[in-house]
Specification:
Blueprint: H1 28-40, H2 46-53, E1 68-72, H3 83-97, E2 101-105, H4 113-116, E3 121-125, H5 134-145, E4 149-153, H6 164-170, E5 184-190, E6 205-208, E7 226-231, H7 236-239, E8 256-263, E9 266-271, H8 283-297, E10 316-317, H9 333-339, E11 351-354, E12 373-379, E13 383-401, E14 413-418, E15 429-431, E16 436-453, E17 457-463, E18 465-470
Parallel strand pairs: 1-2, 1-3, 3-4, 4-9
Antiparallel strand pairs: 5-6, 5-7, 5-10, 7-8, 8-9, 11-13, 12-17, 13-16, 13-18, 14-15, 14-16
Helix pairs in contact: 2-3
């Protein structure tokens, strides 16, 4: 493995971790690499990457000149699983929009005046517990005050606890998240005509994510920040998490979510959105992020006068009163079919059998993501699910969706095809299973397909939805 000071993520892989010559093998950097590998694993998977790529935003303005961004994602505290999703989104935006070029880094060694001179902005992607040296702190502050940009996603505000100027640069320090990542919350847009709010098209919205509030002594407030988005505390769903916080007037609690500001000659954009992986698959939020980044680069002009210093308060648009039904399920069955338009459309005519609990086999193709085929017992080699098509068909792959039972995917799978259901020959595909798996193989004609589970694990083997891909 090559020793470098920064990590570049390849297009086909969301995250590749490297070691650093600046840190000993048993030092803090090596420990970070080990922890990150355990958290990130191989995410985002194929489905997640495609969901990011199909929801990329467009650059609102053409760059005034060639731009280059440093996206930093190291953590000294909690490590968010959404980091590789944010990294993949940033790489995809860079390659598809032309708004900037991008380097990804996780080594403090990048924070020198000489190295930062190559960049137009720094993005802190869900970093936590950052504690740069005095020289590195100076390089970062000189960078933004000298006319460059800084942007932060979500946990970028959970850093610099021993560096007051760094915390002030971002806008504040994390002080808990009453609004958890499993909830769908209401947001109001402050200044719907502001360039950095254009993504919301003049409307408040609901979104599933984790939302912070901030240490009062660190938060820069509306006297210093131009607040763009905040929680809509008029709605009971947003008030409910504060019942245990002894807040006498929850409607009056101010919870800014996105903001911008100037610092010296430079510019900052921060959004608390980005805890959940699915946030980086949401075109509206990605557009908000890209507009914020283009503002920090100096390409998208926007007013950053602090909210309380405006001559006239901007209009505020609240969220719809009722939560949309699909707000928590962006990766629906319809989205899967859109991603794989060559999926066979005759599933009702298929005959399914299985080695275990064959009476549940048809639940893998009933169109209901909540039901499932399941073996009803722990995985062991030799379990199988078999599909008989109405007639011989040219096929090129199988899509297995086990997201509703995340641990129940086949630990090792084999795919066999047959013309008569008796002679199977060699497998057309062998691999390690995933929660969502699109298994591709060389196109061939078959009427019978057998999926074999060859691993051993304590969980059941389950499939919530199964699709067979046609050759075209």
């Amino acid at each position: 493995m090559k020793f470098v000071s920064k990590t570049i993520v390849a297009a086909a892989c969301a995250l590749a971790l490297t070691t650093s010559a600046a840190d000993p093998k048993d030092g803090p950097f090596a420990k970070w690499l080990e922890k990150a590998k355990g958290v990130f694993k191989d995410s985002p998977n194929e489905l997640d990457r495609r969901l990011i790529e199909m929801n990329l935003p467009k650059a609102t303005v053409k760059p005034l000149r060639k731009r280059r961004i440093l996206c930093f994602y190291r953590c000294g505290g909690f490590i968010h699983r959404s980091i590789p999703f944010g990294n993949h989104a940033m790489k995809s935006i860079a390659s598809q929009t032309g708004a900037f070029e991008l380097d990804l880094a996780d080594d403090y060694a990048v924070f020198t005046a000489d190295n930062l001179a190559k960049y137009d902005a720094i993005v802190f992607n869900n970093t936590t517990g950052l504690n740069p040296s005095e020289e590195q702190r100076k390089a970062i502050l000189d960078f933004i005050k000298g006319g460059k940009g800084v942007a932060g996603f979500h946990a970028a505000s959970d850093n610099f606890k021993n560096w007051e100027a760094g915390a002030a640069m971002i806008g504040g320090i994390f002080n808990g998240h009453p609004w958890g990542g499993g909830g769908t919350w209401a947001f109001k847009v402050e200044g719907p005509d502001h360039p950095l709010n254009a993504a919301f098209k003049g409307k408040g919205f609901w979104h599933r994510d984790e939302i912070y509030w901030y240490r009062p002594q660190s938060f820069q407030g509306r006297d210093n920040l131009r607040v763009l988005v905040s929680l809509d505390m008029a709605l009971p769903e947003n008030q409910a998490p504060l019942k245990n916080k002894k807040e006498a007037r929850p409607k009056e609690v101010d919870v800014p979510v996105s903001w911008c500001r100037t610092l010296g000659k430079g510019r900052l954009f921060y959004t608390n959105l980005g805890h959940n992986q699915t946030t980086f698959q949401n075109r509206t939020i990605l557009q908000h992020m890209l507009d914020g980044i283009q503002y920090t680069l100096g390409d998208l002009k926007a007013d950053a006068v602090p909210t309380k210093k405006l001559a006239k308060a901007p209009p505020v648009v609240g969220a719809p009163k009722s939560k949309p039904m699909d707000a928590a399920n962006p990766a629906s069955r319809a989205v899967v079919l859109k991603l794989y338009p060559n999926a066979l459309k005759n599933r009702k005519k298929w005959k399914l059998t299985a080695s275990h609990k064959s009476d549940t086999a048809n639940l893998a193709t009933d169109g209901n993501i909540k039901t499932r085929f399941t073996t009803g017992q722990s995985m062991k080699p030799g379990m199988w699910l078999q599909i008989e098509l109405p007639k011989p068909t040219n096929i090129s792959g199988i899509v297995l969706d086990t997201r509703r039972s995340r641990g129940d995917y086949a630990r090792v799978y084999e795919i066999h095809c047959s013309d008569d259901g008796e002679s199977w020959g060699k497998p057309v595909a062998i691999g390690q299973g995933k929660t969502f798996d699109a298994i591709k193989f060389k196109p061939r004609e078959a009427r019978h397909i057998r999926i074999s589970q060859q691993g051993e694990f304590r969980f059941y083997w389950s499939i919530h939805e199964l699709d067979i891909l046609g050759a075209k």
